[in-house]
From TrEMBL:
Domain of life: Bacteria
InterPro entries assigned: FxsA (IPR007313)
Any one Gene Ontology cellular component term annotated for this protein: membrane
Regions that span the bilayer: 72-97
Protein name per its UniProtKB record: Membrane protein
Originating species: Amycolatopsis bartoniae
Any one Pfam family match given in the protein's UniProt record, by short name: FxsA
Keywords (A to Z) from UniProt: Membrane, Transmembrane, Transmembrane helix
Length: 140
């Protein structure tokens, strides 16, 4: 896990360095600030939309699994927007946009279902009826 974090930090610094070499320091700061402002506006809008969808699913009496997942992905996208850097901003914006969030949601739910599906164990056995009387039934 520490190696992944270190790789992320190195990639983020490399991305900021590459962008700043093309557009300059002030341009890089402007892009980072613009990404944060756009991301926070989009996170607020999509978070409210996810909350409304959750409430309508709950009122309709259907399972709000997709709506809850969308809300969690919007929250995670908002957190990524707050982390300084271009890679986290791009990942956060992708989670905040409904088409790409739908792709991530479907992939995430498939992975969760695969990891939590019950394992079936088949045992070669014979079913034998239990002829003993049940104590609770006899007591009546």
């Amino acid at each position: 896990m520490a190696v992944l974090f270190l790789l992320y930090v190195v990639a983020e610094v490399a991305a900021v360095w590459a962008v700043s070499s093309v557009v300059g320091v002030l341009g890089t700061l402007g892009l980072l600030i613009a990404g944060a402002l756009l991301g926070s506006w989009l996170a607020r809008r999509e978070g409210a939309r996810a909350a409304r969808a959750f409430m309508s699913a709950a009122r309709a009496g259907r399972s709000p699994q997709a709506e809850v997942t969308d809300g969690m992905l919007v929250a995670f996208g908002g957190v990524l927007i707050l982390v300084p850097g271009f890679l986290s901003d791009v990942a956060g914006l992708l989670l905040l946009l409904p088409p790409t969030r739908g792709i991530v949601r479907r992939a995430w739910l498939r992975r969760v279902e695969k990891r939590t599906s019950p394992r079936v164990i088949v045992v070669d056995s014979e079913v034998v009826p239990d002829d003993r009387a049940h104590p609770v039934i006899e007591g009546r």
